[in-house]
Amino acid sequence: MRPLYETQRLMRGIRRAALQRGVIAILDLGTSKTACLVLRFDGPQRSQAVDGVGPMAGQSQFKVIGHAVTRSRGVRFGEVDSMGETERAIRTAVQAAQKDAQVRVDHVIVCFSGARPESHGLFGEAEVEGPTVDGWDIGRVLGSCDVPAIGPEREVLHAQPVNWSLDHRTGLADPRGQVGQRLASDLHLLAVDGPAVETLLLCLKRCDLECAGIASSAYVSGIASLVEDEQELGAVCIDMGGGTTGLSVFMRKHMIYAESIRMGGEHVTSDISMGLQIPMAMAERIKTLYGGVVATGKDDRELIPIGGDTGDWEHDRRVVSRTELIGIMRPRVEEILEEVRARLDHAGFDQLPSQSIVLTGGGSQIPGLDGLAARILGRKVRLGRPLRVQGLPKAATGAAFSAAVGLTLFAAHPQDEWWDFEIPSDRQSSRSLRRAVKWFKDNW
Q: What residues have CB less than 8 Å from 170, skipping those under 6 apart?
């Protein structure tokens, strides 16, 4: 935990410097696409945002002044697979966004979907030393949290307080400045594979970019796609990307669980490619134009030209019915949704007061997916797209850009994390996620 912990503290300072300068880049490094947005921060609240980090530090007004999207290369399952290819894709996206914004960008905040995220629930408490709660009291509470054995070569990506209790009052959003004697906190910790994060940071360094923050795609997609009532009462965001499907459970406007499934839209494309014996590019085109997961009677009569340039006249003039195409796509989509249901059951999602489910990401645009997901998951499902950000370019308003848009909110409205406070080094035993979820059920 210590190397990335120190890096996170350093990146907080870099972010403050970037906000003070007024320009920062957002980079969504996905398996199928690499998206870059350039933000300009201005307005009277900008000076407040650089004085601290957290809900009480103020919010920054920003505007998207440049954007670019390119096909991802060298990324597999949301992780860097080929350093050289990924570096070229990042340089291409960032340079195109800089040209669109007509400004040079040195600092970037990045999100990614891989590295096998795993959630842990922690609890800590301590006596308040002064007349009111201050940052040192919060640091001692967070320092007393039960740190789980996250495993070798695992690092902490997010560590956010999700609830505060002061004496007999609970559900506090921010206890600073309040009067009390005993302060307690529930904290959500998200651990990932350390080498995957270090490789990503090294790749950004090779691109001459300074990383000012790093986030999980599942987390930022939930920030962008869930409405305020869903974040407050309890909801899950399912971000179906190209190589992975991310899950994030929110309650009281905080993420309390996150997970990633190493299957996504590219696996559906691969099944089409193998089933119809066509190249991946053609399979992606057919999936986009004709794909679906629910067959109707007229789909037998809708013939899709496959085409080809093999020189074999019969082979290159093949056609396939839409029903056959759906028959190839549906089993893989069902497999992904069945795995999602298993992960939600393991997390205790059925214990939350509200059980809304929102589908987002590029893979969620398959026609009929929301109805199939509702049947498999046993709950009402809606399709989500980025919310709460005005002035986005039209190309970045679709569900495929939920992570990128969420990352802009992550940059402009930072939440308190473990490394924002001076924390004593003492650590104790673990506390399971189910115990944390039970606490939410009993107290909220």
A: 163, 164, 443
- From residue 211, alpha-carbon distances to 3, 82, 197, 206, 303 in Å are 15, 19, 12, 11, 49
CA distance 351 to 328: 35
Q: CA separation (Å) from 257 to 105, 125, 152?
A: 33, 21, 21
Sign of the CA dihedral running 326, 77, 188, 397: negative
pLDDT on residue 358: 94
350: left (phi over 0), alpha (psi -120 to 50) or beta: alpha
Amino acid in the structure at residue 214: I
CB-based burial, 243-276: b 16+ in 10 Å, e otherwise: bbbbbbbbbeebbbbbbbbbbbbbbbbebbbeeb
- Give dist(CA 208, CA 104) in Å, integer: 12
Helix H or strand E segment including 375 = helix 369-377
- What strands, in cross-sheet order, belong to the sheet with 182-193? 118-127, 182-193, 154-166, 169-172
Question: pLDDT tens digits for 145-190?
Answer: 877 788 888 888 888 888 899 988 888 888 888 998 999 988 899 9
Q: Given CA atoms 253, 257, 258, 264 in this order, what sign does their dihedral have? A: negative
At 68, the amino acid letter reads A
Q: How far is CA 231 from CA 184, 356, 389, in A?
A: 22, 10, 16
Name, in order, each residue with C-beta under 8 angstroms of 329's C-beta and a sequence gap of 6 or more: 268, 271, 272, 287, 291, 292, 293, 366
3-class SS string, 253-268: CEEEEEEEECCCHHHH
250 closest CA partner among 347, 345, 174: 347
Q: How far is the C-alpha of 6 from the C-alpha of 345, rounded, in Å? A: 34
Give the number of other Cβ atoms within 10 Å of residue 343's Cβ.
18
**Tens-digit pLDDT profile for residues 329-342:** 999 999 999 999 99
What span, in angstroms and rounded, lies between the C-alpha atoms of 419 and 374?
A: 39
Gap between the Cα atoms of 111 and 363, Å rounded: 18
Backbone dihedral angles phi then psi of residue 127, each to the nearest 5 degrees: -80, 140
